[in-house]
Amino acid sequence: MAVEALGATVVVSTPRRRDGRWLWVLPPLVLIGVLVVYPLVLVAIESIPAWGDVVGSAEFRDALVRTVQIAVSSTVGCLVVGTFLAVVISFVPFPGARVVAGLVDTMLALPSFLVALSFTFIYGTTGILRAGGFLTSPWAVVLAEVTFYTPFVMRPLLAAMSRLPRAQLDVAASLGAGPWRVLRQVVLPEVRPALVAGGGLTLLLTLNEFGIVLFLGAKGTTTLPMLVHTKGIVMFDYPGACAIAVVQIALSLGLYAVLRMALGGRRARLD
Amino acid sequence: MLVWTRSGKAIVWTAFAVVFGLLVLLPFLVVIAAAFAGSWNGVLPSDLTGEHLRQALSGDELASLSVSLQTAFMGGLLAVLFGTWGAMAAHGSRFARAADAMHHLPIAVPSVVVGLGLLVAFSRQPVLLNGTKWIVVIAHLVLMVAFSYGTVAAALQRVDPSYADVAASLGASPARVLWRVRLPMLLPAISSAAGLSVALSMGEVGATIMVYPASWRTLPVSIFALTDRGQTFVAAAEAVVLLATTVVLVLILDRLRGRAAER
Amino acid sequence: MTVQLEDVTVHFGRTCALEGFDLSVAARETVALLGPSGSGKSTALKAVAGFVRPTRGRIRLGGNDVTDLPPARRGIGVVVQQYALFPHLRVADNVAFGLRAARKPKAEVTRRVGEMLEMVGMASYGRRFPRELSGGQQQRVAIARALAIQPSVLLLDEPLAALDAQLRADMLGELQKLRREVPEIAIVYVTHDQSEALALADRIAVMRDARLVDIAPAAELYAAPPSAFTASFLGGANLLPVAMDEGGVTVAGAVIPGLKPEEGKSLLCIRPHAIRLEPPAAASAAAAGGEGVLGSEALGGAGALGGAELGGAELGSEALGGAAMGGAGARGAVEDAVEDAVRLVGRVVAAQWRGASSQVTCLVDGLAEVSVRVDVPAGRRVPEFGAGVVMVLPVEACSLVPAGVG
């Protein structure tokens, strides 16, 4: 890494040594271009022959509907559970609430398939609840995703709630508002951007979720990412896999674009 | 602040304990318990054993651990390097929006699709990587770059630009400003990006399962293979190995971050 | 309705924020809780509002124990320091918040919101959002919102602290007007600013280190502070150590004429504005203006003053003590027009110009560790740094307070 070349453009307003600037800005972009954009473009090109077959198939349409169903149900679940947990941690604090908040942060970095793995013990045919039928239903996927993605809703909510002045809640209570009214009319309106950010991110990630579906191996539960895997790796049908991937890319990027527009300058919260 | 009466608080806390315990905490505890259980036919596991753990730390499974660690270090650390570089280069420049969008691409699309793309792109000329470990490392690099970029970019927005201005006013060259002022101030974010990258890399399954060669099986792939064969207890034990390794790695990186923050 | 706090103690973990606090505020009365930050004044207010639960003690409103009632059921109006207007609600909806929480009929809500905004002069701002208002306007809305629920008690927590100086003066006037418009309610006013407390309060409770130091009607507290802390915090009084002997009180060796010694009160308290500065020459002239018999003594004094200027502190001050006494005695004997006063000699160590006045800090010869602050009105000559001066302390402005931390 040529520090001289890097340094030349650190002060953005320095007009001299413009040629050095490219050496500083370009390499990361080239890396992403070669390793992400170029492959995705190839995927789109590969998909063209299989386009008609795949889009017309019932298998694809079922998977699309299932994917959206699971993602929306999971997101709604995460929003409800995550909001409740975040409100308690923030506004009805108990000893150890900070530990719980720290735990939530840790969970963001854990692999999702752990949850699916645990479900085989909890709901499996020989497990705690022996609800074998449940394990193969889409609801198992939804429950696993609610478990795994609730922290993703909680994190932005906890941050937003910690910025909410306590005095507002106090004053609202002094004006005669009960907890429910304070929550509805003071807290929720003010953390709405965080709610949208967390919910949007969760919707995106649940649309894309693969590990949980793979590990639960639910027969009736084929989602688009699962279908990409099956077609590409199990059946070696690259064009078919690519066609589905293109739909998935369009879906995800469309949602991502909407989210970025909705959140405006608060881009960082999507990370 | 919200609930003022003692009984109200008690009710809310009980509900919290139930929801958090059953929904969020229980699954992780069950995996850990299963790793040490000979069998699990009731509410509680039975026949406490270390046999699964022994299996999870021998032969192919141990090799998987090594593969995962190597992949996480190569992919994750390269990702931190390029993510930091990308974020600093894009910060305040007119490419910022384009760079943002490009770096977020791997997070926005499913990891399976990222894997498929690499498979399609590098199974042909000019670069043939399919069947080598490098395609796995690249897959991890690509995914983790996105997270590193995000972490560092967020930190950059919080850093007061006047530090760099003051350094420049004191006569420091741009290179010195970068090396002595901007990078040190970003160190906590960079090391937290490193922790996140390594942790996520250890658990990555979507892209890996699309591209891995038989000679380079990461831990999550092995765990999946075990569950697929019905060896769920060994799978749980190996998941515990994965968890423990991740926690240790993140803790080490966290201590480094602590030292960076003290300065 | 009266507010009563009985032995209220609040602990946050191991820190004690309020210790054994007793206070009673009657209807139609304004009590200011005055103290530096961390003195527990805000905690006391929060305990009354119900935002913090006392570890010990009871709180009564109109005789009813409300210690265990949540804030929503106390019916107290609260205005906090940063106003805490709900940012997502328009001004009118902010004011209507409490009325809607009480499920008042729509027509009544509209009417009352209108009245309240009218009263605080914000009638035309109902459709605005709080962020579109200036600090002073936000403050008025916060007051309107608190009064909309027709509380019998209004708690104001540093309501002017977030405003700049000019606006603060204006708002002080508005608060006085408000006080006249809602005469029946009890007001507790928390502030660290003594001028706000003096301007608004009937009684002032001075607090320090989580405890009540003194409580008394404002004028009384100002005129005769019961403690050294109150004396210096309220009006920034000068505190000078005194000595007592055979029925007289002396400061820096000078007898204070007419002041009787009191048991345990070892500090002389005098406000900066009550002190007058004279050049050393004037002191000797005043003394020389007396009878010839005293002339030599006065001359001796003048000579000693010269010594003081040269830095012969101890000798100078003692000689001056004699001169001042001599001077006072001479005037007492000769011209009745001259007031009873103590004259201390010293020199100027700092001077701050404050526009309408200047504050001059002087060291008194013979009182090594004590500096005396003197307000010099605009138009009077401000002595230069290092210049020797005579501080004239009129006896009627002097009082004695006990020393000690309380």
Automatic annotation (TrEMBL), chain A:
Residues 64-259 form the ABC transmembrane type-1 domain. Pfam families: BPD_transp_1. It is a multi-pass membrane protein. InterPro entries: MetI-like, MetI-like_sf. One of its GO terms (biological process) is transmembrane transport. One of its GO terms (cellular component) is plasma membrane. Keywords: Cell inner membrane, Cell membrane, Membrane, Transmembrane, Transmembrane helix, Transport. Belongs to the binding-protein-dependent transport system permease family. This is 2-aminoethylphosphonate transport system permease protein.
From TrEMBL, chain B:
GO terms for cellular component: plasma membrane. SUPFAM superfamilies: MetI-like. Its main location: membrane. GO terms for biological process: transmembrane transport. Signal peptide: none annotated. Pfam families: BPD_transp_1. It is a multi-pass membrane protein. It is found in: Cell inner membrane; Cell membrane. Belongs to the binding-protein-dependent transport system permease family. This is 2-aminoethylphosphonate transport system permease protein.
Automatic annotation (TrEMBL), chain C:
Residues 3-234 form the ABC transporter domain. It holds the Pfam family ABC_tran. Keywords: ATP-binding, Nucleotide-binding, Transport. The keyword Nucleotide-binding applies. PROSITE patterns: ABC_TRANSPORTER_1, ABC_TRANSPORTER_2. Its EC number is 7.6.2.9. It is an enzyme of class 7 (translocase). GO terms for molecular function: ABC-type quaternary ammonium compound transporting activity; ATP binding; ATP hydrolysis activity. SUPFAM superfamilies: P-loop containing nucleoside triphosphate hydrolases. It comes from the Bacteria. InterPro entries: AAA+_ATPase (IPR003593), ABC_SmlMolc_Importer (IPR050093), ABC_transporter-like_ATP-bd (IPR003439), ABC_transporter-like_CS (IPR017871), P-loop_NTPase (IPR027417). SMART domains: AAA (SM00382). This is ABC-type quaternary amine transporter. It comes from Kribbella pratensis.
